[in-house]
Amino acid sequence: MSNWRKDHLGASSSEPLKVIIIGNGPSGICLSYLLSGYTPYVKPDAVHPHPLLQRKLSEAPGVSILDQDLDYLSEGLEGRCQSPVALLFDALLRPDTDFGGNTESVLTWKLQKERAIPHVVLGRNLPGGAWHSIEGSMVTLSQGQWMGLPDLEVKDWMRRKRRGLRNSRATAGDIAHYYRDYVNKKGLGQSFVSGAVVTAVEWGIPEPSGSGAQDPSPLFQVSGFLTAEDQSQQPFSLCAHNVVLDDPGLVFNQLPKMLYPEYHKVHQMMREQSILSPSPYEGYRSLPEHQLLLFKEDRQALFQDPQGLHKVFGLSLVLVLIGSHPDLSFLPGAGAHLAVDPDQPLSAKRNPIDVEPFTYQSTQQEGLYAVGPLAGDNFVRFVQGGALAVASSLLRKEARKPP
Q1: Which residue in 50, 67, 309, 374 is deepest, having the highest Cβ count within 10 Å?
Q2: Mean predicted lDDT score pLDDT of the chain
Q3: Which CATH superfamily is domain 2-251+324-400 in?
């Protein structure tokens, strides 16, 4: 990693990079794994419990999933995700997990270095992204087995660490450690640069003269600064043929009641509470459809109810929990024109970046990809499908280039 920083971040490189991944969360880690030459194949003796998918998989024995038609393979799959490729990859990695089963993945992985695509992953934190910013003792919403990345199950990793899942879930600290360890164990560290803050991404930059490109095409220019151990900032500017955006934030949505009873209990408390009657729950009061107007110096807060009446409540602590919002300020116009509805604010839940469903490439800008919550995939178990789609697209681009 230090050599990469010295050669590329310390000075401008005349040779454009193939791919720059902005964000080192689970999506970025999984994509780096795929771009490093790790290639998924269906095990010769594997039988998938989904009959239609099994029939399709048997039609191309010995052909990598990356080289197959993802549209065709994912047709007919259903689940708690809108992305067909995400459902496909999840079904291959965890065939019957939604039915409470623990059938092993039907995939086997081969390291084929000749298929690797040079890339770099830029992240503010250590590999794992926002997981390193969460209180380590917090328990994950998703089951621990759903937090894993390809070819290294969380339960196996925790067993080797002499750790255990708590009611089938892991702590945020364990998951952060797992992601960092995954990068090391899979030999991906040379592509990761931590402490990198991206401040601008521009496109339409001409190919440098003398680069040897037979078909020069406009490039992306990624600029920012690298924070050193002494907190000094070193600016960098890199050019690349492709850029992948990986939102480092965490978004939780659509929590099944059977798996998350405590969250549904809170929702029940919110619905059953009436401000006009004594609370059935000691120490809890909900204020539905109220608007916070003012925090007063005497530890009181002023609210306005739906009828416009003002009410004052005493308080001792305030937590602002308004959900996550992607920060794409480094893009022109903060990336608003890339959204499904460019006239509305970009939102991971309601208005994500508009991408092609089987490549995750932006419909507005060739060479720009988005994965994870930015593309509408809000669970770790599903963000990996976006990485599969991007890797497949990039490999096809490389195959089309003249020798």
Answers
A1: 374
A2: 83
A3: FAD/NAD(P)-binding domain (3.50.50.60)
